[in-house]
Write a structure and sequence with these properties.
With 523 residues, the chain is an alpha/beta fold. 68% of the residues lie in helices and 6% in strands.
Length: 523
């Protein structure tokens, strides 16, 4: 009997050992999930992992593994859901790394089209590890895409200290610099981009445009000629050749520019580019005027008028050119408008300041309130006693300028007075201003040499300072009978205004970056 009992016990122990060593592991959900993964059966693996979550809902490792599998299946919403659970549980180990989880979540948000949350999550990464290259990279391009060019430039400057020899980074840095009117920096960055990817159409076009902004026509022509000779895409061909023709004209090689415009006209016609045909006829008219060939200009504009009578100001131009061609110079009193009077506007607007930005492909289709995200980030950091790159970026300039734009009229006038004092001037008289809410005018004198100056302070949000504003200011300097004028602005200048500034020797512009430094400690 004892022997039988002992035999039964041995059999039971053997069965238990077999079960725990061979059967249990095979039916245990974690092991079954791993087995399914090896067979690329991801849906089945997820079901097994979810059995574990039913018993252990706070198992961060299982949430992480499920998110990984959903990513393989392309189910991005589920990826976001489970990664958020990992972050909410806030437990990590060597395999489930905190930074890695946040970066995965940020990427999932981005794929989801939730750019705002992606941006916030990348900022969270930078609060933990300020030198994370991926996070700085994505924050740089997101801020650029949202057209926050000043913030973007600061992040790109930081990114280039962490990672070099990357075409996209140099090109993005070039665009952000160009949009901040830092043309020298833009040229340098574009040159680096071209050295990495010499056949890039957009980089070669960008450096041509940037060099044009510097009035370095010789180098611009060199880049644009190479691009125009090499490129095959018809749209890029047209843009590069038109830009080349325009640059040649500005370089006083008008005959060469006219020849390229004539070739472009045939090119546009042969490729059924009707809008470009109209534009080239418009350009050719002005080119002929510069060559003192008004009858040729009239011919091109007549053709343009026949194709589109509403094209820009073509009817006015035709009236003027006809009058110019028919009138005798003996009766020219010098006061009546002529077609030549429109040449300067044509040159200023042929390639507007946002042209490169509009074609570079970095503008985001999805907008979000990026400033609100940055402000919230700053508040959170202050509460937590943390220091964040995003907060620094805003504090560097955005906060002071934004506060200056937002304060009431009286505080604005007082702060402007204090800015002038920091510059070494004492206000002698406050002048009447057309719109006191966004501008204040002073007559002041230098505390050093007692010379009087005219000072205009302008706080404009979105609009840039145009050429007419600068010319009005120059006239104001003459009317006030002072030797010099200081134009202090929260806004950048348009390209025509920048060119005009070089001829206005009595006008000194204080740009937003300089104003930001002057506002330090005042606001």
């Amino acid at each position: 009997m004892l022997t039988v009992l002992l035999l039964i016990v041995i059999i039971i122990i053997g069965i238990l050992i077999y079960y725990f060593l061979y059967i249990a592991p095979k039916i245990e959900p974690k092991n079954r999930a791993e087995s399914f993964i090896k067979q690329n059966m991801f849906e089945e693996a997820i079901l097994e992992y979810k059995k574990i979550l039913d018993l252990e809902p706070s198992n961060y490792y299982i949430h992480f593994k499920i998110a990984e599998l959903y990513k393989r299946l392309g189910k991005n919403d589920e990826v976001v859901s489970h990664l958020k659970e990992v972050i909410s549980i806030d437990k990590y180990d060597t395999e489930v790394d905190r930074i890695d989880v946040k970066k995965r979540l940020a990427k999932a948000y981005y794929i989801q089209g939730n750019i705002g949350d992606a941006f916030q999550t990348y900022l969270d990464v930078l609060s933990i590890y300020p030198d994370d290259v991926d996070a700085v990279y994505h924050v740089s391009f997101i801020t650029l895409g949202q057209e926050e060019f000043g913030i973007a430039k600061r992040y790109f400057d930081r990114l280039l200290k962490l990672r070099k020899d990357d075409f996209e980074i140099y090109f993005g840095a070039g665009i952000s610099s160009y949009q901040n009117n830092k043309i020298d920096d833009a040229v340098n960055y574009f040159q680096e981009a071209v050295s990495i990817r010499p056949q890039s159409d957009i980089a070669n076009l960008a450096i041509g445009i940037a060099l044009l902004g510097k009035e370095n026509y010789r180098e611009a022509i060199s880049y644009l000629k190479k691009l125009a000779d090499r490129v095959t895409h018809v749209d890029v061909q047209y843009i590069s050749k038109r830009l080349l023709a325009f640059t040649l004209i500005l370089a006083n090689k008008v005959d060469e520019g006219e020849k390229i415009f004539e070739e472009l006209l045939e090119f546009a016609r042969s490729n059924n580019m009707q809008d470009n045909v109209l534009l080239t006829l418009y350009d050719l008219g002005f080119t002929c005027l510069k060559l003192e060939k008004p009858k040729h200009a009239q011919k091109y504009w007549n053709e343009l008028y026949q194709l589109d009578r509403d094209y820009d100001n073509i009817e006015v131009l035709l009236e003027n050119i006809k009058r110019d061609n028919e009138a005798s110079s003996d009766f020219d009193d010098g006061f009546e408008m002529t077609a030549h009077d429109y040449i300067e506007d044509w040159e200023a607007n042929a390639f507007p300041s946002n042209f490169l930005w509009d074609i570079c492909g970095l503008k985001s289709d999805k907008k979000f309130d990026i400033k609100n995200v940055l402000v919230k980030t700053k508040i959170t950091d202050a509460e937590n006693g943390e220091k964040r790159i995003a907060s620094d970026s805003v504090n560097d300039s955005n906060d002071r300028i934004e506060k200056f734009l937002a304060i009431d009229t009286e505080s604005f006038r007082i702060t402007s007075n204090r800015v002038i004092s920091k510059m070494g001037y004492k206000v002698d008289e406050i002048l009447q201003t057309y719109r006191e809410s966004d501008g204040v005018d002073f007559i002041a004198y230098s505390e050093e040499n007692k010379k009087k100056v005219l000072i205009w302070v302008r706080r404009w949000g979105e609009a840039k300072v145009g050429e007419i504003t600068l010319r009005n200011f120059a006239q104001g300097i003459n009317d006030a009978k002072v030797e010099i004028g200081l134009f202090i602005s929260t806004a950048m200048l348009t390209e025509p205004a920048e060119r005009s500034l070089k001829k206005l020797n009595k006008v000194v512009v204080i740009y937003p970056d300089e104003l930001n430094d002057l506002l330090r400690g005042l606001i």
